[in-house]
Amino acid sequence: MTTFSVPGLSASDTETVVAILQKRLSAYNDLHLTLKHIHWNVVGRSFIAVHEMIDPQVELVRGYADEIAERIAAMGASPRGRVGDVVADRDWDDYALLRDTTNAHLAALNKVYDGVIASNRGAIAALGEIDPVSEDLLIGETGELEKFQWFVRAHLEDEDGSIAGQRESTEKAAAAQAR
């Protein structure tokens, strides 16, 4: 429920935009916690490289959550960032791995990024018809997420150009194939 709309948007369009952005806020909150979880639980070959690669992404994604929450507030709504809100908004599974190898975590993380980026692209398409300001915000964030997924995939790519776990449909299966 919004208390006001930004100039140029109807109350109905504002409600739609807020609903779309709320799903992205929950996805970003989940993603930054997942990234930190990986940071704490990655072991094995390339440990330090992956361990240190993850933290800047955690901070970037936390910043994205803040930007989305502030956009929701600027539209007159209340951003929902509690754990229960994330769980209620989820249409994805909780991250499946605990302590595991760098390749296993990166293959699973690649699947996480597949989902977040695809969802962002869907949100971008929906927002483009209603609110180009919110659309622009997500476009910039999605470009950076795609760049980080490239970093992840670069760790997983072999000399033939195959990416470990890419053909698998779940995080667990991708991790098992990458081990």
From TrEMBL:
It comes from the Bacteria. Residues 19-158 form the Ferritin/DPS domain. Pfam families: Ferritin (PF00210). GO terms for molecular function: ferric iron binding; oxidoreductase activity, acting on metal ions. InterPro entries: DPS_DNA-bd, DPS_DNA-bd_CS, Ferritin-like, Ferritin-like_SF, Ferritin_DPS_dom. CDD domains: DPS. Gene3D superfamilies: 1.20.1260.10. SUPFAM superfamilies: Ferritin-like. Belongs to the Dps family. This is DNA polymerase III subunit beta.
